[in-house]
Amino acid sequence: MNAIAKISPDNFATYQEILASTPIFDGCKNEVISEFVSNSSIQSFSKGEIVYNYSDKANWFYLVLSGYVKLYRETMDGQEAVIDIFGANKIFAESAMFENFIYQENCEAVEKTDLLRLPLGLLSRKIEDVQILAANLLNHNIATKKQKNKEIEHRDVQTASQRIGCFLLDLCSQNKTNSTSIELPYDKILIAAKLGMQPETFSRALAKLKSVTSIQVNGSLVEIPDISELSEFCCSACSSSFPCKS
Amino acid sequence: MNAIAKISPDNFATYQEILASTPIFDGCKNEVISEFVSNSSIQSFSKGEIVYNYSDKANWFYLVLSGYVKLYRETMDGQEAVIDIFGANKIFAESAMFENFIYQENCEAVEKTDLLRLPLGLLSRKIEDVQILAANLLNHNIATKKQKNKEIEHRDVQTASQRIGCFLLDLCSQNKTNSTSIELPYDKILIAAKLGMQPETFSRALAKLKSVTSIQVNGSLVEIPDISELSEFCCSACSSSFPCKS
């Protein structure tokens, strides 16, 4: 069972800062942010615990403090389609306020995860009179739409190996040097699901990627001796080039 | 070369009505809509003509009056990824105002097409003080994001035949009876591209769909004697069921 904790006065300022640094609350006045923090709590989930289910009444939206959550839908014949995976500092489930306050997908913690739980009704009321909040939400959704277009493009024109390479490049895009080693953020089965592949397809495609580039994979550690080589291999089948703006 | 025509005073009210009936201008005051119509013109394109190119300066957004446009991006190795296809009454390219007024894709008329060309700068200024316009844009983008999630889900869990069936079901979803005949809105190569398939994959998957359901295809005419049968075949691998809300 997940645990819910109030925010102590000692930590209030920390959560104000975390919230203020998200794109959705960017530029909002302190009193607006404080109102959200005052009405929030911290919810801790263990691996595999459900945060909410599809068609549940949506009273809350969330910010990831640590860990990862998986948003997914189930098809009638029982397959699982992963919509998104969110890690630290990402806000999610806020769109439910435009869906009659009904969650549109299932949400599950994929490892030990702490979430900041914020009242969705407050957000809905605030966007009516805090203009910057409405503008931020619009920007956020436009950026998401762009990202989704990119994901569709990749499924259509990239090979499975190129899509895995692209996922790896996203993880090292902040890096300035041409060689790097990165830690996979979550397990390979989940990465496969995020990329819309069966685990077997993912294994074969990863083996292919290792054979045509110099990357090496050891458990969750990936050595990329030559980022340019990897980006050349992946980005040839993409309309953007490395490093991606998105 | 495409032709540009001013809107005559006789037709002014018609275009006001068309604009007022779009989700983005829903509920906007007459004077706001009139200001847009006053600054619009009608642009006619023949099949294959370019409306704008990726990275062009974006001065305009568009409403389709008749015909179809294809929005697409090109990968570095020359493949084409179709992002969207828009027909009558759809507004597009408005998101460019959040991209420093630079178009983010190519746009081409896929048949003889008339567009209403509207000033993007005016839209950008208006959403700052016409709150309903900002709210409509937000709703529009949330709906688009939802649609994109569905497209990603379909690419991940549906077979090619099921995706073609789903495309057909979308065309007959307004119908109340269980049997119908529909006209394909544009040619099969473009439908294949919209669904992210190679033309050969599309042909094989359509043949499979005809063999496992009772649909019949004659050129661009599709006979669907039993919509329930088709929806059962397609929707089993989807988290929604027919008729889709989106």
Architecture blueprint of SSEs:
Two copies of one chain form a homodimer.
Chain A lengths: L2 E4 L5 H9 L9 H9 L2 E5 L4 E3 L7 E7 L2 E6 L5 E7 L4 E2 L13 E4 L3 E7 H10 L1 H27 L2 H13 L7 E4 L4 H7 L4 H14 L3 E3 L2 E4 L2 H9 L11
Structure description:
2 copies of one chain form a homodimer. In chain A, 37% of the residues are buried. The longest helix of chain A has 27 residues. The first copy, chain A, has a 5-stranded antiparallel beta sheet. In chain A, strands 3-8-5-6 form a 4-stranded antiparallel beta sheet, with no helix packed on it. By secondary structure, chain A is α+β, with helices and mostly antiparallel strands. Helices cover 40% and strands 23% of the residues of chain A. The first copy, chain A, is built from 8 helices and 12 strands. The interface between A and B is large, with 39 and 39 residues.
